[in-house]
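Q: For a teaching handout, I want to show students what a protein-ligand complex looks like in token form. Below are the inputs, and the small molecule is phosphoenolpyruvate. Please produce the holo structure.
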Amino acid sequence: MSDSTITPWVVGNWKMNPMQANSQQLIQDLKQYLKQTPITEQQCHIGVAPISIALLPIQQALLDAQSPVKVVAQDLSRMAGTGAYTGEVSGELLKDSQIDYVLIGHSERREIFGDDVEHVKAKVLNALNAGLTVIYCVGESLEQREAGQAEQVVLQQICDLATVVKADQWHNIVVAYEPIWAIGTGKTASPEDAQAMHAQIRQGLAQITAEGKNIAILYGGSVKPENAVELAACPDINGALVGGASLNAASFFEIARAFAKIKE
Ligand code: PEP
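A: Here is the structure, written as tokens, with phosphoenolpyruvate included.
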């Protein structure tokens, strides 16, 4: 079981949404909710992951937010530093723009954009070396779950991670368990199934590093205000990576409240 001192994380993955004006409105609405009911950094880390060309405008819009909201990149290059890599943004360049957080290994990157294990590992390595905090996504497909391979697939992804994280870098790792069949489908893993996988991940991490008991493990896959409270009650679910519901400020705020409440 996790250390009860883990501060939860609730991160909104906006994916390839929305238009600039709508993203500004979304942030203004979120700021308004946080003004009415602040959520401290000790209660919950809140993050939003906009499209790359909205990272800096959103960061700017958040400067006067009542509660801190982290700006998270949805991806980064597997190439480090600077150089002749058209269309790419490295960890160093994100850091140079004060973007300190990045999602890596989201199933959409792995499945649609060909991020294989070696690419994902290179991205983690570069992100950590640039000083970023990585939200590392793992999860099994429906076929793998039905074949009874879910645990093996997910633990292998944790082992992949362990090959590139140095002993003193684990504090910059957050894990997000996202069963692929639950992403954007409206299907959520039951809290029992999600907790069972999170406990396995926790055990796997604890075998790899003494930091394992302190690493936040987020659940992702059709998280909504309606299921957030139950998920937040699970001992090894330390937050949520939220897709669709993060595009609605009221829903996203409710989810953050559900996780922040457990720290009250
Ligand atoms: C995601 O893409 O990370 C995700 C969890 O999406 P959704 O909440 O829409 O299922």
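A: Two things your students might notice: The chain has a mean pLDDT of 95. The CA atoms of residues 87 and 119 lie 16 Å apart.
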